[in-house]
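Dig into what follows:
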Amino acid sequence: MLISEAYAQAAAAPGAGGMSDLSQFMPLVLIFVVFYFMLIRPQQKKAKQHREMVMQLRRGDRVLTQGGIIGQINKVISDSEVSVEISEGVRVRVMRAAIAEVLAKTEPVAASKDSAAAGDAEPEASTTPSAPVEEKKSSPFGGLFGKK
């Protein structure tokens, strides 16, 4: 009889148990919400921007690969590959996903000649893409490392 009374005294009230269980999960839910807005969502946004940038690559764009190589897109081979000219006459095939950044975009193609003849659009002065002008930087080592 004493044992059953001691057991009855130690038991929690039936209505109080549900509320304490919910309050135990609140910090876990709060941590997940913070992780979503601080880590997961920005990462997904950045990945989407990279996918869009990679799909808009075209011939003439100057790009930086993830390996640190700067070159100009020579040919779009497929949906997953491009040919990049990294030096005069040196071309490499690169996966589109390996393009880290587009340094310079080419100008869009001018309106078709039919619409220009009809007077709908004014033809542009130059339709060929111009290469970006690179600044000459002086080396702290002078002429030790060959100049171009």
Notes: The helical segments are 2-10, 16-55, 113-117. Strands lie at 62-65, 70-76, 81-87, 90-95, 99-104. The radius of gyration is 31 Å. Confidence is low (pLDDT under 50) at residues 115-128.
